[in-house]
Amino acid sequence: MITSILSTLIVSAVSLGPATAAAPTVDGAAVDAVVRQYREDTALPGVAVAVTHGTEVVRTAGYGHTPDGDPVSKHTTMAAASVSKSFTALAVMRLVESGRIRLDDRVRAHLPEFTMADPRAADITVRHLLDQTSGLSDTTHRSFSGPPVHTLAEAVAAMRDSKPAAAPGTRWEYHNPNFQVAARLVEVVAGLPFADHLRREVFAPLGMADSRTADTASDLPPSAAGHVKVLGLPVALPEPPAFGNGSGGVLTSAHDLAAWLIAQNNGGRGPDGTSVATPRSIAETHTPSTASPSYGLGWFVGVTPSGAPLVDHGGDLFTSTAYQALLPASGHGIAVLANTGMRHGDAQAIGARLIALVEGRRLPPVDDPHTLVDVVLLGLTPVVGALALRGALRSRRWAARRRSTAWTVARLLPLALPLLLLTTIHRVVGLLYRGRDVSWAQVPYLYPTFVVLLSVAALGGVAVLVARLAAAAGRRGSAG
């Protein structure tokens, strides 16, 4: 979901210290040490990790537990979130390889149901969907805060009254429905449900028996549920309602992601040599588009802090995160599935540390400012509540000092501002996330203690407002 666009920035922006003279041996014990230390420092409940080198599996393992208390293993099915986009891209490439579509075909030529309230939509190509240059935008199509959808067909139909924000091919913008349209295109062209096509063309050939797809948050199995941390402690919560198939619906495991990483680094051939794509198709997905030097087809393209080539993608749900990285120069692959939400970015942070391990760089200290913020905001909450109670109890005294009705109303209006902010907070958060669409139900997962403080302020403001209006009305009645 929301902040998958930040995964490459997170990896490349963190200063991990100078390189050592020689890279250490990257083996299972070294991987375990990195992950276990991170869990000790952050109270991360559960995480699964895969590290590969060439066609070999260095380590696949689970650490910690699910919200139900079950141990996380290398076969535990967890949410891949926006890492799913690379799977959708490969599903499309399988159709390209068979000659059933071309990347530069217009989408509507194969998917007539894809219509929008703007003639420019007719020029959107398959490539535009996969490299996020379709012109579609959260600012013109609200897929999270709009009416709910439950299938890929409904997701495409929901776009009929929307418009592109830019001409196709002229601007890069991360927009989840691009990949939902692509997945629906696969369904129609292949004549199979998207889940079945992905299983037949990708999962089964690679031996990814733990993997499947989900349509909505309600389809997540208990093992893919996650947490939000408050005061540094994990709180198990259900994922807020959302549709994500095609853009974020893959469910997978560390064991399965190891096979996927090997195929990506091995020209489309899995651990046993089975091919799921041609080397040309794999290279195509890893090649930046002309409109963005940092995004290919379902993958970000950049460099590590050491300057080595990096092909990666992050995934963010509100209760879990995921990350995958390919290091073409060394032949390593890294994947992480963590059961805490995007507020913490734990999968991306562990991925950055494992990249540092591979490159022989010093790992960064863990920096989690959220606990201090939670302490401050929760500390302010009873203070705000007490001030509201005091204001309500002293409302008669307040009314007795007011002579002008207009001035009284003007003094009361600010009391409604916390309620106004509370009801529109998702729009404010959307602006903070560069115009991304956010539903109101998702905001407490991002800022839980702030929402608690704001809710107390809103209720307190309304209580004081009502008490003062009643006191002012009573004073006027007695005066009359």
Automatic annotation (TrEMBL):
UniProt KW keywords: Membrane, Signal, Transmembrane, Transmembrane helix
Signal peptide (UniProt feature, chain positions): 1-21
Residue span, Beta-lactamase-related domain: 31-348
Coiled-coil segments: none
Membrane-crossing segments per the record: 372-393, 405-425, 445-467
InterPro entries according to UniProt: AmpC-like (IPR050491), Beta-lactam-related (IPR001466), Beta-lactam/transpept-like (IPR012338)
PANTHER family: BETA-LACTAMASE-RELATED DOMAIN-CONTAINING PROTEIN (PTHR46825:SF9), D-ALANYL-D-ALANINE-CARBOXYPEPTIDASE/ENDOPEPTIDASE AMPH (PTHR46825)
Protein name: CubicO group peptidase (Beta-lactamase class C family)
Species this protein is from: Saccharothrix texasensis
